[in-house]
Amino acid sequence: ENNGPHLCYDNNSQSLLLALNFSLNESSVEKLECEIEVVIRSMENLYHILQDKGITLDTDYT
Predict the structure, then answer these.
(1) Cys bridge to 8: 3, 4, 17, 51, which one at CB 3.0-4.6 A?
(2) Where are the domains positioned within the chain?
(3) Degrees to nearest 5, angle at CA 22 with 45 and 46
(4) Is 27 helix (H, G, I), strand (E, B) or coil?
(5) Which domain of life does the protein's organism represent (predicted)?
(6) What is the pLDDT of residue 52?
């Protein structure tokens, strides 16, 4: 999909970032909620794929 979600990796902080790219001017609350759900589902899918390959993401954000 052109607007994402896009996956980025920052080596310095060893962080994964999932991001969307769409205009807020052309959006509604419902559209924004839908896009957020897409990112959440994508992150869950990525987590399971990595877990199946023996890679565990650190989810300690403190």
Answers:
(1) 17
(2) 6-52
(3) 10
(4) coil
(5) Bacteria
(6) 94
0.85 exceeded by pTM: no
7 neighbors 46 (Cβ within 8 angstroms): yes
Residue 16 has φ and ψ, to the nearest 5°, of -100, 140
Tokens of 30: 């419902």
CB 5 within 8 A of CB 20: yes
Residues 6 or more apart from 26 whose CB is under 8 A from it? none
> How far apart are the C-alpha atoms of 32 and 41, rounded to whole Å?
14
3-class SS shares of the chain: helix, strand, coil, % to 5 = 40, 15, 45
